[in-house]
Design brief:
InterPro entries: DNA-bd_HTH_TetR-type_CS (IPR023772), Homeodomain-like_sf (IPR009057), HTH-type_TetR-like_transc_reg (IPR050109), HTH_TetR (IPR001647), TetR_C_22 (IPR041674). The chain has 229 residues and is mainly alpha-helical. 76% of the residues lie in helices and 0% in strands.
């Protein structure tokens, strides 16, 4: 009996050790990815180096290479994780709108959720729109863009049921283009100036969509703009 208990204890320890090693490895990967996000955001992808990432993480280059063979592999892993989070974010931000919701409220809710993600993860914009990013990330970005566009089209089609498909696509393209242009300006500023650009972005989208939507949604503000807090 005692021999069996001793064997069971040894088996349990042997199983626990790989789990601990795996947990330590995951923590180290998360540490390296956080450091890479800081370096990519500060210097851009092209100018970043594995040495700079290792230094930011407080580890040796050799430790970094135990987990990632090069800078591209780090960027692809980081981009993939952020892409999955972004898909969850726009799924919430572009959910169907209650007809009683005003256009101002709908635009504000969607923009706030999308901007919150990008402001919390500025490296996402760097990787998705920066020059010389890995081809894998560029492909993932194109797929994300297409999916995001289709979600905007679906949302607009519920508000504009009689719209011609070509017109609907053009409107969705304009909304996405306006948002991306505004996003770049928002990320380039801080504090009160950033808040001002956020308001301007919302106002542009509201004023663009208001004549198209007409009376199909509720009204919270007759000016067609976001009030200054």
């Amino acid at each position: 009996m005692s021999a069996n208990r001793e064997k069971d204890g040894q088996d349990g320890q042997e199983k626990e050790q790989p789990r601990r090693r795996q947990a330590r490895g995951e923590r180290r990967i998360a540490q390296l990815l956080e450091a890479a996000a800081a370096v990519f955001t500060t210097t851009g992808y092209s100018a970043a180096s594995t040495n700079a990432i290792a230094r930011e993480a407080g580890v040796s280059p050799g430790t970094l290479y135990q987990f990632f063979p090069n800078k591209e592999a780090i960027a692809i892993e980081l981009g993939g994780r952020l892409m999955r989070q972004m898909r969850e974010t726009y799924g919430e931000a572009l959910a169907p709108v209650d007809p009683t919701t005003s256009l101002e409220e709908a635009v504000t809710a969607a923009v706030d959720r999308l901007l919150a993600f990008n402001c919390d993860h500025p490296v996402f914009f760097t990787l998705m729109h920066g020059p010389d990013v890995p081809g894998r990330i560029a492909e993932d970005h194109d797929a994300l863009h297409a999916t995001l566009l289709s979600r905007i089209e679906a949302l607009l089609s519920s508000l504009l049921p009689d719209a011609d498909p070509a017109d609907l696509n053009r409107t969705a393209q304009m909304c996405l283009g306006l948002y991306k242009a505004g996003l770049e300006l928002v990320l380039a500023h801080e504090g009160a100036e950033r808040e001002a650009y956020v308001r301007e972005l919302k106002n542009v989208l509201i004023r663009y969509l208001a004549p198209l939507v007409g009376d199909r949604m509720g009204h919270a503000d007759t000016t067609g703009s976001v009030p200054t807090p």
